Amino acid sequence: MTTTATADSLARIPFLREERDPGGRCLSEGGRSLDNAAFAAAVRRLAGRLAELGVAPGDNVAVMLPNCAEIVTTMFAAWYGGSALTPVNPALTDDEALYQLEDSSSVVVVGDERARALAATLDIAWVDVRSIHATSERPVPPVGQPGPDDAPVAQPDDFALVIYTSGTTGRPKGVLLDHANITAMSSSLVDHFQLTAADTSLLVLPLFHANGLIAGVVSVLRAGGDVVVAPRFSPSTFWELVEEHRPTYFSAVPTMYAVLEDRTGHPVDTSSLRFAICGAAPMPADLITRFEDRFGIPVVEGYGLSEGSVASTINPLAGPRKPGTVGIALPGQEVAVVSATGEHLSTGLRGEVVIRGANVMRGYLGRPEETTKVLRDGWLHTGDVGTIDEDGYLRIVDRIKELIIRGGENIYPKEIEECLYTHPSVLEAAVVGRPDPVLGEVPVAFVAARPGLTLSEDELRGHCAVSLAPFKIPAAFHVLAELPKNAVGKLVKAQLSERAPLR
Q1: pLDDT tens for each residue of 43-92
Q2: CA angle, 100 then 101 then 107, to 5°
Q3: Residue 457 burial (CB < 10 Å; 0-12/13-18/19+)?
Q4: Shortest CA distance to 231 belongs to which of 199, 203, 273?
Q5: Contact 90, 67 (CB under 8 A)
Q6: Which residue blocks in 194-284 are alpha helix, DSSP H?
Q7: Which residues contact 216 (CB under 8 A, 6 or more apart)?
Q8: Domain assignment present for 285
Q9: Distance CA 92, CA 7 (A)
Q10: Structural domain harbouring 66
Q11: Could you tell me where the DSSP H helices lie in 136-178?
């Protein structure tokens, strides 16, 4: 099914669905379910509330919540008023969350009491999450009028999402995606997976990532299907959700597949599932085979970045799937590998993976120099090394960056190192990735103390816990007399990696 919706119609999705099938399934979470009419009404109410708070076209609306239906409603309400959405990971510390709210210039935060306190710190507006689906709180504005009479519908070049991704400088960067980007990305996924109104997405990935928002929500809603939001992934309840809601697909990270394959001890009904998507980190080929054989579900591995609106290659459903590769370019995109001098390389040769298409971001918020580094001559330079075979299948073989992917969460060592350097006893600090059989990789820290001072693992762990989200805290801390350096005094992390073997 190929959709013909224009970019500005993303904001109209709830209302188009309401017109076509007001009683049709749309959005479910736990024991709650919204049909198309109820969802559209909730979007109108929240859009009206945002307008009353002074949120204007071009402003940024932040939402800071664990997975719930209200995040989806907030996204469409922001879009209908011509605003962008910034989803904030609720696992972040207050300092980390405040940085993203300030950097994105958010004018309102939708969330719980913690979000209220953060909003007060910045003197910006707050919307109580409990009010979003409370139908008795306020009347529903007429169709097409979510707020003031002049409330605009977003245009294709208006920003739609500001997604924060870690940066090599240690501070997260805001990836700017406009409505044209998301239209291109969602239509590409609809085409590739032939999504229709008969499809249901089971959303187990976090909604502060582009994957959950675009692949798990926008794509299936624009195709006419519906979304089931799982508050959090749990192997003990996952298959119950599948059997209860009968989804046709879900997207997960390798860690989730490994846990499901390891901990499922009873027969499960997977007959509703057409396919499952794997991304965020490489998935071992033997795990894909074991999972497919055991549960009878095709697992299609893909590859992408937030900078490319989430996905650029995916193994096909109808054609050959090649475990160990991340598939072929999605419709509307070009993927190539280039040399250090920018020359496109032939089949089988290693080079940096580059991407071109309408899905590629507009840039990094407030960071023109970093934008220029990755967007060159119309191509997005990913920093990943790969090869493309004779059939067009991409294989990721290495990373140029020092990114650590822990269970699907991106962690950059620089951010942890900067935190460690704020400890008064730390002289030197370096963080590397250590292989982990369940999470893929975990960060490990090496530090050297200032002369005459001492450090302990518990002390360093407690120091990091003050400023870093739990998933960023190193799995181990090693205190050395000094860290290895090369002839010019630069830390040699390769030698440290050898000291952080698989446990």
Answers
A1: 999 999 999 999 999 999 999 999 999 999 999 999 999 999 999 999 99
A2: 155
A3: middle
A4: 203
A5: no
A6: 210, 219-222, 238-245, 254-263
A7: 201, 203, 205, 207, 227, 250, 251
A8: no
A9: 32
A10: 1-155
A11: none
In a domain, 66, yes or no: yes
The one-letter code for the residue type at 349 is L
Q: What is the DSSP letter of 196?
A: -
| Residue 372, CA distances (Å) to 159, 356, 396 in order | 19, 15, 24
| Domain assignment present for 72 | yes
On whether the CB atoms of residues 120 and 137 are closer than 8 A, the answer is no
Q: What one-letter code names the amino acid at 83?
A: S
CB 339 within 8 A of CB 345: yes
The 10s digit of each residue's pLDDT in 257-297 is: 888 988 898 999 999 999 999 987 777 787 888 899 999 99
Q: Residue 105's domain is classified under what CATH number?
A: 3.40.50.12780
Q: Is there a domain that residue 366 lies in?
A: no
Q: 217 near 227, Cβ under 8 Å?
A: yes
The total number of structural domains in the chain stands at: 2
Q: State pTM to two decimals.
A: 0.83
The CA-CA-CA angle for residues 185, 373, 359, to 5°, reads 5
- In one-letter notation, the amino acid at residue 241 is L
